[in-house]
Structures are given as C-alpha cells and as structure tokens.
Design goal:
With 310 residues, the protein is of the alpha/beta class. It has 14 helices and eight strands. Strand 5, helix 9 and strand 6 form a beta-alpha-beta unit. Helix 1 runs antiparallel to helix 2. The protein is globular, with a radius of gyration of 20 Å.
C-alpha cells in the first residue's frame, strides 16, 4: 500500500477515482481525471514548503540505496566487511556496470520493514561501515574505477559501542582519505543527509542532491529541542536551517540539483533512477576531461565556508 502525506491527499483521491473509472471501463472519465491529476500534481509540488520537502526526503516509499543499485547496475556483486571488526549492513558497497562503465557504488541503506530496518540499523552506520566504505574505495582507486556514493542517513549511530570503537575517527579518516582519492568520485544525497554520517561519504569531485532531499548538520527535531526545547517548533527549525537542495545550491555547498520527477521519486522510481544515472555519466565525463581534477577537487573543498573579519 502506497503511503500518502497530508498534502498529497487530493492526489490520492483523484488516483482512487481513476482506478474506479478503469474498473468500470469508463475511458472518458479516466481521461478527464488524468488531466485533473496532472493539474493537482503541478499545483501541489510546485508550491512545497521546506517542511514538506523534509517529509518527502524521509518518505517511506522513497527509493533507498539498494533500490537504485538494483536498477542502475548490471553484473554487480557486493563487498562485505571492514577487515577489522564486522560487516556493517547500514552501508552497502557494490561493484558493477552502469551504462557499460565499471563503477563502485557505496550507499547508506535504511531498510524496509521492521526486520530489515533492524538489520540496517535504520541507516545509521557504525564506524565499521565507514571503514568498509574506505577499504572498498581504495580498491576502486587501485583499479581506476569511478565511485558513486549515495547518501541517505539520519546520522552516524551514536551508541556507546560505536563511540568506543572510534566513530569520530572513522568519519574524520574518511573525510581525509576521500579528499585525495585518485579516481573520479560523485556523491548524491538521495534522501536524508544527516550530520557527519552523511559527510563521511560526501567528499567528492561532485556533490549533488535530489530535488526533494535534505542535507543538514542536525535534524530539525534536534534543532528545535536545543534552541526552543519545544518539538512543535520543528517546522520553524526546518525553515531556519536552510537544508533543502535549493538552499544549499544557493550557498555553494553543493554543486548540482538532480531534477527528480515532479511528483517525487517515491511516486516515480524509474524516472528518478534514470535522472540519477544520466547525472552520473554526464559528470563523470566532465571530471575525466579535467586533467587537473584532483586540484579542482581540492580547490572546491577549500572554498567551503565563509567568514568575515570585523
């Protein structure tokens, strides 16, 4: 069963009517309703506020990393383990072919259904996940294989065990090592990009966001709790934090916005998958055409953040 948010209820109602007209073989009514649906989708999704975009980024029907991987890669195989402690299922690593190009895809996976969510730790990696990502990225570097990273996490796991095993060190190590990998790297926020958990696989030649994704140092709920001690302020926090794709593009934090289907990736997974694939191939070509792409990456990273002296 598809999940509809509060602001999607009119869309759901029209879709239900379309299904009813199809069942009755009333093609004339179906055609009229489909035009109404198109108008309602445009009206709804062209006027989304920041909090509604946050809801879409977290939508349970939105494609996760494994959904994209299964759609864009052929002849793929998964690499497991960090060779130190264990295999963290919140991060997945696959080698395969995308449009004839051999690539490595590293993704943060939230999981569907209670059993799978627990297996994936709700998309919150332990340090072993980040160490696995780095280990596999080094293999890709050795064989000059480009890397696509898919960010989708509420944040790195904050448990005692994770901290004891060096969560902050693992994230910092990835920031350092990914910044100087000698192979093209492209990172895309496909849903929720939370804090250091997202940054750990977010250092790349190109950093992009899907249109209805978010990227922030803390969740709006956490922000509301710290600033106002009031959970009801979450919408105000979302607006104030500037966490949407357009906000971050305007601030030069990200390089590009991937225009997923207007109705959202959660309603058109095939369309979103195609947009992601096209973006990766296009940007990979641009990076390879730059003979000094490592220097370009360094300069891009050094320009992040601004300050003014008084």
């Amino acid at each position: 069963m598809a999940t509809y948010l509060d602001f999607e209820q009119k869309i759901k109602s029209i879709k239900d009517e379309i299904e009813a007209s199809i069942a009755k073989s009333d093609l004339h009514a179906r055609d009229i309703l489909e035009k109404d649906l198109h108008k309602e989708v445009e009206k709804t999704f062209k006027n989304l506020n920041d909090y509604q975009k946050l809801q879409l980024a977290r939508h349970p029907d939105r494609p996760y990393a494994l959904d994209y991987i299964s759609s864009i890669l052929v002849d793929c195989y998964e690499i497991h383990g960090d060779r130190h402690f264990y295999d963290d299922n919140a991060i997945v690593c696959f080698f395969g072919y995308l449009s004839g190009e051999k690539v490595l895809v590293i993704g943060e996976e939230k999981g569907r259904g209670t059993k799978n969510k627990l297996k994936r730790n709700f998309g919150m990696p332990n340090p072993e996940g980040y160490r696995k990502a780095l280990r596999v990225a080094k293999i890709a570097e050795k064989f000059e294989i480009p890397i696509l990273m898919l960010i989708d996490t509420p944040g790195a796991y904050p448990g005692i065990g994770a901290e004891e095993r060096g969560q902050s060190e693992a994230i910092a190590r990835n920031l350092f090592e990914f910044s100087k990998l000698k192979t093209p790297t492209i990172s895309v926020v496909i849903g929720e990009g939370g804090s250091g958990g997202a940054l750990a696989i977010g250092v790349a030649d190109r950093l992009a966001m899907m249109r209805y994704s978010v990227f922030s140092v803390i969740s709006p709920e956490g922000c509301a709790a710290i600033l106002w001690n009031d959970p009801s302020k979450v919408e105000s926090a979302t607006k104030a934090m500037k966490i949407t794709a357009q906000d971050l593009k305007d601030a030069d934090i990200i390089d590009d916005i991937i225009e997923e289907p207007l109705i959202g990736a959660h309603r058109d997974k095939n369309g979103a998958t195609q947009k992601l694939s096209e973006y990766f191939i296009e940007k990979l070509r641009e990076i390879r055409e730059d003979e000094n792409y490592l220097e370009s990456r360094y300069n891009k990273l050094m320009k992040l953040g601004k300050f003014v002296e008084f």
